[in-house]
Every structure is written in C-alpha cells, then in structure tokens.
Amino acid sequence: MRRIQPASSLTMPYSFLFRMLKDPRTTGALAPSSARLARELANLAKNSENVLELGAGTGAVTQALSRVVNEDKLQIVELQKKLAVSLKKRYPNLKVLHSTAHRALDNYRQSGSVAVVSSLPFRSLPPAIKHLTVQSLLAFLKSSPGSQLIQYTYGLSAPFTAPAGFKWQQIKWVFANFPPACIWVLTKSPDQ
Ligand SMILES: C[S@@+](CC[C@H](N)C(=O)[O-])C[C@H]1O[C@@H](n2cnc3c(N)ncnc32)[C@H](O)[C@@H]1O
Asked: What structural domains does the chain harbor?
C-alpha cells in the first residue's frame, strides 16, 4: 500500500466525457466512479486473497483498492491503451494489463480466492464482447473456489443474466455517484 499521486480532478471528468462521446458502448458512463462508490467496492473486496479489477478506466476504483489491498495481490485491466498507460504511470508497482477482460480472466494465475471488481458496462457492451466476457467470468468463478464478482450497474436489474448454478445478490444502492449505482455480487452456488 502506498501514497497515491492524485489524478487531476479538474481534467478527469472532461477527458472521461470525451471518451464517452468517442466510444459510448465500451465507456458506458458519463463520469468516473465516485469516491464513495469506489470505497464501497473496495470494502467488499478487501477480504479476498487477490483482487482483479476489470475496466479500471481513469483509476477511481483502483485508488480505493490500492488503499486496502497489497499491491502484489492487485491486478488491473483496461482496454483503452491511453488509459492503461496512464494507470501504469500512476501505479508503477501494480500489474496493469492493457487487455480485454475476457483474455485477462482466461490467463489469470493466482492461488486463493479472488474478488473480481468490475466497472465493465455490461448494459452497453457490443453483444459479442459481452458474451465472451460473461462466459469467461462464469468459467473463472466455477474454477476458483471462494471467488466473487463485484459489479455495479445503473439499471434496476442484475448486470447480466446468470445461469443455474450461480447466484446474484443485490448489495446496495450508492446515490453519491452520477448516475446512482447499484452494487451486485455474483458467486457460484454452494452446491455446484
Ligand atoms: C465505466 S468506465 C470506467 C469506470 C472506472 N471505474 C472509472 O472511474 O474510470 C468502463 C471502462 O471499462 C473499459 N472496458 C470496456 N470494455 C472492456 C473490456 N472488454 N475489457 C477491458 N476493459 C473494458 C472501458 O475502456 C472503460 O474505461
């Protein structure tokens, strides 16, 4: 755990909005995650042995995670090269992958339970990418005992439909976020 260089709070919302306009389906939000939402996600993840963050974006959630998770236990993944490069500069001791989430999940090798903390915009992702990502997540949870997916969504229903053998739990709404977000946790059912 280390002291983090704060990202510019003035320029970040503008660059985020620019990215949203350029690539709305993969960005999936109008603003970076709030500090409150990021803290709630980090609190849910902190007792797992490892943490894998998907769709780290501008690093709002990474910042909260890096306060409660040892840096050798935290890996982060971001699809957009510019963002991945800037995250690596900001967090030189973290493993930062410029990759799709499904590839990162398929290649992830760490023993022990994993909290997968995701900002991926499942409601807007292109269908083929959404399908690949969901399949990789389900395979990962199946093969990794004690692991969980911690995901937020701006909608009223679960982030995506999970098949039999998996269970979504709605955790809480965070209103101090734009727009308000609901946190959900997906786990493998105990008897599977
Ligand atoms: C809602 S935004 C980021 C939110 C982030 N918590 C923040 O505050 O900046 C979602 C991020 O997921 C990334 N993303 C979208 N699809 C992805 C994929 N298939 N694999 C990895 N990252 C992806 C986007 O590039 C974007 O940065």
From this structure: 25-188 (3.40.50.150)
* Dihedral-angle region of residue 87 (phi above 0 means left; psi in -120 to 50 means alpha; beta otherwise): alpha
- Residue 133 CA, closest ligand 1 atom number: 19
Nearest ligand 1 atom, CA 55:
12
pLDDT in tens, 71-104: 999 999 999 999 999 999 999 999 999 999 999 9
Query: How many A from CA of 105 to the centre of ligand 1?
Result: 15
118-134 in b/e form (b: 16+ CB < 10 A) is bbbbbeebeeebbebbb
Q: 161 CB contacts (<8 Å, ≥6 apart)?
A: none
CA dihedral sign, ordered 29, 31, 38, 89: positive
Which residue is closest in CA terms to ligand 1's atom 13?
55
Residue 191 Cα to ligand 1 midpoint, Å, equals 32
Ligand 1: atom nearest CA of 57 is: 27
Strand, coil or helix: 151: strand
Structure confidence by residue, pLDDT tens digits, 134-177: 999 999 999 999 999 999 999 999 999 999 999 999 999 999 99
